[in-house]
Design brief:
The chain contains one helix and no strands. It is mainly α and 42 residues long. It is rod-shaped and about 60 Å long. The termini are far apart.
Amino acid sequence: MTPEEEQEFKRRRKSRNLVLGLVLLGMVVLFYAITIVRIGAQ
């Protein structure tokens, strides 16, 4: 693997990890909000 290919691979992996982290954070916020709404409804 050439240095350019390795750099591109690392860049793609970093962006994929960032997107995955944002999706995970979004799900955590969603579950938290649903929990707060359900507790407040009782």
